[in-house]
């Protein structure tokens, strides 16, 4: 893993089911994540849209598709600029931004039709060598 | 309403209504079509880090409970205080410490870091605010710290 490496892109057709299941699995019952009328008439977007914790879940999934199961998410910061609605094709792209002793920083972009919906900087722990399991790191060894 | 009275305000909500459990973990993996074998392994006793905020969200119905309790109660109190009925999260930062284990019950402490002056955006006129949330398990161990940047507004 080197700075500048690109992660394989991922494309997902976001269905209403994804939005509602994302809301349900994160226990978020704000109406804009399950009620189309509310989303359109009150929030003025085209349809129900992915909630914040579900986006965190998608980003973790995108990163661990790349690292494999030893990858352990340490930190993430994401800014949502545009809603990701049911009916959108959501694309994930990632680039390695820093590599530091078992921690990798990745810039992740979520785009819809080439327009940035969410931008994220994430730090994920990866094995330093064959004997290292990031999931066992604690104390001084875990510095997210 | 004086903004200064709210900045620095801290509150600990009651422990979560639900404990971390495997059914939720599978629902989470299902929702994000996440094939990570670590979490599909039936012997796995932790939840994916990104699930951190799930465990604080209250049940929408509990026998005998009068009002629907809300997660991040300080945020909803701020919305009421400033009469800003709508809100969106604009940014979220999460730092993950020890993984949340099956059976853990999470308690959150919220603190208001700052509140902006009144601003007008595409969706309406309101205020941005930043709330820090610390998630601890039943033993007091910090599992993660989140920062939410919200915009609450009126049309």
Q: Helices, strands, pairings?
A:
The complex is a heterodimer of chains A (144) and B (155).
Chain A: E1 6-13, H1 16-25, H2 36-42, H3 52-67, E2 72-80, E3 89-100, E4 103-112, E5 115-125
Antiparallel strand pairs in A: 1-3, 2-5, 3-4, 4-5
Chain B: E1 10-12, H1 22-31, H2 37-40, H3 73-81, E2 86-96, E3 107-115, E4 119-120, E5 125-136, E6 142-154
Antiparallel strand pairs in B: 1-3, 2-6, 3-5, 4-5, 5-6
Query: Biggest interface: chains and residue counts?
Result: A-B, 38 and 38 residues
Largest sheet of chain B: 6 strands, antiparallel
Number of strands of chain B: 6
Annotation field: number of helices of chain B: 3
Helix-strand sequence of chain A: EHHHEEEE
Class based on secondary structure composition and strand pairing of chain A = alpha+beta
- Spatial separation of the terminal alpha carbons of chain A: 19 Å
Q: Which structural class matches the secondary elements of chain B?
A: alpha+beta
H/E element string of chain B? Answer: EHHHEEEEE
Cα-based radius of gyration of chain A, to the nearest Å: 17 Å
* Radius of gyration of chain B over all CA atoms, rounded: 17 Å
Reported for the largest beta sheet of chain A, the result is: 5 strands, antiparallel
Roughly what fraction of the amino acids of chain A lie in strands? 25-35%
CATH fold annotation of chain B: Thiol Ester Dehydrase, Chain A
State the share of residues found in helices of chain B, binned by percent.
10-25%
| Structural shape of chain B | elongated
Q: How many distinct beta strands of chain A?
A: 5
Query: What is the fourth-level CATH superfamily of chain A?
Result: Hotdog Thioesterase
Q: What's the average pLDDT of chain A? A: 97
């Amino acid at each position: 893993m080197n700075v500048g490496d690109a992660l394989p892109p991922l494309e997902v057709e976001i269905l209403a089911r994804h939005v509602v299941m994302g809301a349900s699995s994160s226990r978020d019952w704000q109406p804009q994540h399950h009620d189309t009328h509310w989303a359109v008439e009150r929030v003025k977007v085209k349809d129900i849209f992915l909630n914040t914790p579900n986006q965190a879940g998608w980003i973790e999934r995108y990163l661990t598709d790349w690292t494999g199961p030893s990858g352990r998410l340490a930190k993430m910061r994401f800014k949502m600029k545009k809603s990701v609605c049911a009916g959108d094709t959501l694309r994930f792209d990632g680039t390695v931004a820093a590599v530091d002793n078992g921690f990798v920083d990745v810039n992740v972009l979520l785009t819809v039709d080439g327009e940035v919906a969410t931008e994220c900087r994430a730090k994920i722990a990866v094995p330093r060598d064959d004997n290292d399991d990031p999931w066992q790191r604690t104390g001084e060894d875990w510095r997210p | 309403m004086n903004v200064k009275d709210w900045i620095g305000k801290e509150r600990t909500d009651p422990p979560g209504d639900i404990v971390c459990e495997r059914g939720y973990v599978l629902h989470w993996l299902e929702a994000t079509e996440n094939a990570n074998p670590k979490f599909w392994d039936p012997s796995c006793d932790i939840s994916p880090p990104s699930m951190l905020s799930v465990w604080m969200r209250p049940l929408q119905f509990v026998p005998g409970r009068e009002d629907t309790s809300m997660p991040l109660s300080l945020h909803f109190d701020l919305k009421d205080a400033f009469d800003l009925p709508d809100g969106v999260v604009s940014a979220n930062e999460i730092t993950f410490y020890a993984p949340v284990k099956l059976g853990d019950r999470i308690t959150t402490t919220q603190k208001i870091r700052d509140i902006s002056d009144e601003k007008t955006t595409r969706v309406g006129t309101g205020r941005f605010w930043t709330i820090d949330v610390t998630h601890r398990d039943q033993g007091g161990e910090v599992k993660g710290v989140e920062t939410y940047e919200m915009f609450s507004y009126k049309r």
